[in-house]
Amino acid sequence: MAVYAIGDIQGCYDPFRRLLDEIDFDPAKDTLWLVGDLVNRGPKSLKTLRFVKDLGDAAITVLGNHDLHLLALEAGSVRHGKRFSSLTKLLNSSDCGELCDWLRHRPLAHYDEDLETLLVHAGTHPAWNVKKTLARAAEVEDALQADGYRTLLGKMYGNTPNAWTGKLKGYPRLRFIINCLTRMRMITPAHHLALTFSGSPWRARKGMIPWYEAPDPAWHGTRIVFGHWSALGLIVLPDLVSLDTGCVWGRQLTAVRLDKRLPRVVQVEGE
C-alpha cells in the first residue's frame, strides 16, 4: 500500500491521469492525498471532480480556496463572472448539485497519526498545533455542512480579521480560519496574515515571512503537506512538503510518496 500526496490539479484532468499511471496507482490498495483546488482554471474541472469523487475512500482531499468558490457559485452566494468561466460546464452539468454536495462534505484539514503528517491546502497558523488545527477546521466543516451553509459561503470573502485570537466569534472567526487554511502564504512576525501577497517569498516586502518559517511554531515536529503556492514550487523536507508546482500554468503536476523514509517524487508535464 502506497500513500501519495498530489499537488493542485485545478481541472488538469489529463496530466492527473498520466501522473496516476506514472505512480502505478491502484485504488484497491493505494491512497491519494489531494491538497485541494481540484477545480478552476484548467480545462476539465467537471471530469476531475467526477473522477475524484468516484475514487471513494482511495482519495482524501481537503478543500482549497477554488473549491470553496465553486461551492459559493453553485449555492448562489456570489455572482458568476468571466474570471471563472472554466467552471461554467461544471455548473451547468446535471450532477453539479451532487458533486458540490460531496465537495461540501470534504475536510479542511486531515491528519494521519501513523505518518505524523498533516494535510492542508495553504498552511496552518503558528499558534495552532495539530489538535487545534483540526478543531478550527472542524468549526468550518460543521458550518459548511449545516443548513445555513449558503450564508457562510457568502460571508467567507475578505482579508479581515488578519490576526488570530480565541475571542473571535461568528463569521469573522470562520473567515479567519478559512483564510488561514486555504489562502495564507506570508505572515508578519506578529503572525498577522498578509493575504494580498501571492508571489515568491523572496519578493515579499521586508518584515514578512512565509508562514512555515515562523519561529517555534506550535505544530513543530509534525510534517505538513500543502499546495496553493505555485510561486513557491516544490519543497520536500522531513517536516514540510510543498506541492503546487504550477500544472495549470504549463509547469508540472507533482506526486510525493509519504509512507517511505525517503519520499519518492514523481512529476508529469502540465497543461
Please tell me about this protein's structure.
By secondary structure, the protein is of the alpha/beta class. It has helices spanning 13-22, 45-54, 65-75, 88-91, 96-104, 130-144, 149-155, 170-182; strands at residues 3-6, 31-34, 59-61, 109-112, 117-120, 186-187, 193-194, 209-210, 223-226, 235-237, 240-242, 252-257, 265-269. The strands form three sheets. A five-stranded mixed β-sheet has the order 3-2-1-12-13, with helices on one face. The chain has a five-stranded mixed β-sheet with strand order 4-5-9-11-10, covered by helices on one side. The chain has a three-stranded antiparallel β-sheet with strand order 7-6-8, with no helix packed on it. Helix 2 crosses helix 5 (96-104). The chain is globular. The two termini are 29 Å apart.
The secondary-structure element order is EHEHEHHHEEHHHEEEEEEEE
Main sheet: strand order: 3-2-1-12-13
Distance between the termini: 29 Å
CATH class: Alpha Beta
In percent terms, what proportion of residues is strand? 15-25%
The number of distinct β-strands equals 13
How many helices? The count is: 8
Number of domains: 1
Biggest pleated-sheet summary: 5 strands, mixed
Rg measurement, Å:
17 Å
Low-confidence stretches: none
Q: Output the structural class.
A: alpha/beta
Looking at the overall shape, the CATH architecture is: 4-Layer Sandwich
CATH topology: Purple Acid Phosphatase, chain A, domain 2
What portion of residues is helical?
25-40%
CATH superfamily descriptor: Metallo-dependent phosphatases
User: What is the 3D shape?
Assistant: globular
Provide the residue-averaged pLDDT: 96
